[in-house]
């Protein structure tokens, strides 16, 4: 899994979609940092080190229990993660952060471990989007909560952006995910191209075989899907006030830039992983500045 989209990361972790910290309003920096460190630590429990899957799942269950305690305003005396749950408990109390959104992130981390351990797959796009609903969408909803934007249309657009970012990470990362036993392409999409999960074993990184054209075409189609989702959510940048809107512009453009780089590789991300670097910054700034308001006014919030 990638670290949560929308949130700036410390330099210890590479992130696809970094956001400059100065764009974040000062009074929201502590809760945003608390959310980030909560998710980042959970991601490390799920991904880093040499622990076996069952131990990772046990650690995440303990982590979930500490989240529940933090949401109640309690401190676990023997906390293993006081640097996470101390600030998070304060932020939950001060900003009324919804516990369920934070718990959804942990649910996705646990699902990732279980599917990898059991050789699991995603049957279709709906199942993969359900994973994105828990692995990515909560981050956007938490940030909208902090900014006081809670209408149905904004939430749907945020979900589209966050799901797009998660999908972009998948189509960027097969050279990383396949060797780790993680398989995200929906089987229904694979079947249309005569591919199965077993088809990908013969051209994993360091294997002698090159990916067949059908697999490359699959990445092209899935990338187009991610781009469509991003377009659905992009009008949200004009809803958020001040710095928040600019922050989101860079998030959207960062995701689109990765899709550009995937296309520049001929959609062969099995052989190479595209990244955003400092050289991309001027283009991202230019594209963020040029984002236009939608032509039609937004619908009234659903109540």
Please characterize this protein's 3D structure:
The structure is a single chain. The chain is mostly helical and 303 residues long. The protein has a domain at 99-290: Farnesyl Diphosphate Synthase. 59% of the residues lie in helices and 0% in strands. It has twelve helices and no strands. The chain has helices at 29-47, 53-71, 82-95, 99-118, 125-135, 137-147, 152-172, 174-177, 187-191, 213-233, 242-264, 281-290. Helix 1 packs antiparallel against helix 2 and helix 1 (29-47) crosses helix 3. The relative contact order is 0.12. Mean pLDDT is 87; it is low at 2-21 and 294-303.
List key phrases describing it.
disordered C terminus, 12 helices, EC 2.5.1.21, 303 residues
Set down the secondary structure blueprint.
Blueprint (H helix, E strand, L loop, with lengths): L28 H19 L5 H19 L10 H14 L3 H20 L6 H11 L1 H11 L4 H21 L1 H4 L9 H5 L21 H21 L8 H23 L16 H10 L13
Helix pairs in contact: 1-2, 1-3, 1-4, 2-3, 2-4, 4-5, 4-6, 5-7, 6-7, 7-10, 7-11, 10-11, 11-12
| Residue fraction in strands | under 5%
Tally of extended strands? 0
- CATH class descriptor name of the domain at 99-290: Mainly Alpha
CATH topology of the domain at 99-290: Farnesyl Diphosphate Synthase
- Silhouette: globular
CATH-defined architecture of the domain at 99-290: Orthogonal Bundle
Largest sheet entry: none
Rg, Cα atoms, Å: 19 Å
Estimate the helix proportion, in percent.
55-70%
Count of alpha and pi helical runs? 12
> What class would the helix/strand composition place it in?
mainly alpha
Element order, helices and strands? Answer: HHHHHHHHHHHH
Low-confidence stretches: 2-21, 294-303
Distance between the termini: 34 Å
On the 0-100 scale, what is the average pLDDT? 87
Q: Please identify which CATH superfamily of the domain at 99-290 we are dealing with.
A: Farnesyl Diphosphate Synthase
């Amino acid at each position: 899994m990638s670290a949560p989209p929308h949130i700036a990361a410390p330099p210890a972790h590479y992130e696809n979609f970094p956001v400059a910290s100065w764009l974040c309003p000062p009074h929201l920096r502590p809760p945003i940092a608390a959310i980030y460190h909560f998710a980042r630590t959970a991601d490390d429990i799920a991904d880093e080190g040499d622990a076996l899957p069952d131990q990772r799942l046990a650690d995440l269950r303990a982590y979930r229990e500490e989240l529940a305690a933090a949401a109640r305003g309690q401190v676990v005396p023997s906390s293993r993660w006081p640097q996470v749950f101390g600030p998070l408990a304060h932020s939950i109390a001060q900003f009324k952060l919804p516990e369920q959104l934070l718990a959804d992130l942990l649910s996705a981390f646990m699902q990732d471990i279980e599917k990898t351990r059991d050789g699991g797959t995603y049957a279709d796009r709906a199942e993969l989007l359900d994973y994105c609903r828990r692995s990515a969408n909560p981050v956007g909803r938490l940030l909208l909560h902090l900014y006081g934007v809670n209408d149905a249309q904004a939430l749907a657009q945020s979900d589209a952006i966050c799901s797009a970012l998660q999908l972009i990470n998948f189509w960027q990362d097969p050279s990383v995910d396949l060797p780790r036993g993680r398989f995200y392409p929906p089987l229904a999409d694979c079947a249309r191209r005569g591919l199965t999960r077993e088809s990908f074993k013969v051209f994993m990184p360091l294997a002698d075989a090159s990916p067949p054209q059908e697999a490359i075409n699959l990445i092209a189609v899935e990338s187009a899907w991610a781009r469509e989702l991003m377009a659905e959510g992009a009008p949200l940048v004009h809803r958020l006030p001040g710095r928040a809107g600019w922050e989101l512009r860079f998030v959207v453009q960062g995701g689109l830039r990765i899709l550009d780089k995937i296309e520049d590789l001929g959609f062969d991300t099995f052989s190479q992983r595209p990244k955003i670097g400092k050289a991309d910054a001027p283009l991202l700034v230019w594209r963020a500045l040029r984002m236009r308001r939608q032509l039609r006014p937004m619908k009234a919030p659903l109540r």
